Amino acid sequence: MYETLKVKFKAIVDKHNWSAEEITVTANTLSPEEAIGNPEEDDYPILKGRERIVEAKFRGARGHAFTDMFGNYRGTINEIIGMEMKNNFRRAIFVATLNAILRHLGVVESTVHCKDRVPQECSKILVEKIRSVFGNPKVLLVGFQPRMAEALAQEFSLRITDLDVANIGTKKFGVLIQSPQEAVQNIEWCNLMVVTGSTAVNNTMQEFIGKKPVIFYGVTVAGPAYLLGLNRFCPFGD
Prior knowledge:
Elements: H1 2-15, E1 24-30, H2 32-36, E2 52-58, E3 61-67, E4 73-76, H3 77-82, H4 88-105, H5 118-134, E5 138-142, H6 146-155, E6 157-161, E7 171-172, E8 175-178, H7 183-189, E9 192-196, E10 214-217, H8 222-228, E11 232-233
C-alpha cells in the first residue's frame, strides 16, 4: 500500500517541480490541548497520553496524523518520500506530509483535527449517514473512538476492536472491546466497517480494504483515502 502511495505522491510532487526544490517540511508534535481543545469528556485516547497528533506544514497548509510514536522531524519532500516505512513514526511523518501537500493543492479537506464538542455532532452525522446508505447494518468499529462508539451502540448491533491493551476486555457503552486478533471473525460478522484513519499509520489499513463496505474516519486518512479512492468520513475537520 505504501509503495502505491509513494508512487502517486511522487507523481504529484514531480508534476509541480517540487522534488527538485529545497522545500522543507516540518512536523511538530501537538499537545492534547492544541490538537483537540477541551472537550467535556476525558476518555479520548489523545487525552490519556497514548497517542499524539503529528502536524506537517507546507506553504501555509497543515496536515495531521495520529500516532503512538511521536517526535519532531525536519527534511525535504524527497527525503520523506524516500523513507523506509518501517515504523509508526516514519509512517506518521509521511502521512502528515501527504495530507499537508494535498491540502495545499485543494484536493482534500479536513486535514486538521476538530476540537472541543464537535466529536459529538460528528457521531450523530455518522449515524445518519449509515442509516441513509446502509439501512440497519451490523457495524464493526475498528479503533475505540468514544463518541462514535457511544452513538453507534445506541443505534446498531456493534462490535469494537482496539489496539490499546487498557481497553481490550472492558465494556464501553455495553459493548465488549475485543483485540485485533478477533478481526477476521468480526469482519465476517459485520455488514459495515467503520475504521480509524490511524490504520494508515499503524500499517493495518490494507486489512480492511476490499472485504466489506468500509468507512475510514478522521483527519489522518485524508490523503491516503484520496489517492487510493476510499470512502472517508470527516465532516468537521479544519
